[in-house]
Amino acid sequence: MKNRLKVLRAERDWSQADLAARLHVSRQTINAIETGKYDPSLPLALKIAKLVGMAVEDVFFLDDQPKSEAPEA
Amino acid sequence: MLIPLLHRRRKAVAEAMKTVKSGTASVAETKRVYGFRLVVAGLMWASIYLLSRGLLELQLPGQSVRVLVALMPVPFFLWFLWRWMEGVARIDELERRIELEALAFAFPICVVLLMTLGLLEIAVPLNPDDWSYRDVWAMMPALYYAGLWRARRRYQ
User: From CA B155, how far away is CA A31, in angstroms rounded?
Assistant: First the structure.
């Protein structure tokens, strides 16, 4: 699974630690999600989407999703 | 000197525990509180294990007394295990995944280790001072820590 978390975070001028504190997770968790090493649980993915004010499928998408269907990076 | 220090630390942990239970604590604070509680339970269990081992070396009279002494560390280990599970339930989800992967790494290796040891025991006479269960169990936590190191590296 891929995600746009790094871009969305940068747009809001949040550090990884800021985002981690808002989500009550560790900074390592945010880093692992951003680098694609860890796929978050559904509750955490929903929390992230809610925090950035987007639908969850606009933040996270499948690796094999066609480019036309993938949200803009 | 150690007792007042532990008392102060315990008070600080009790204060932090209130924050953790209220759900407003940071991940680092939660980890610190449960880490401290786990270390205390672990030290208690290890001390009782060493005491039990020492008493058994003294060749105590009466089999029932010896069995009782041998079983002495069990409730302390169960307490340690309870603390561990309590901590795992509270830590953040990546940390929980790392714990799971560490156990998934260590458990099958422990099975292979014990199975091989059992077969070797049949094949050749092994020195019980080196290869009995009383010593081999210590390899299991070592394997868990190896698994923990491996899983942490993976998510770094």
Answer: 9
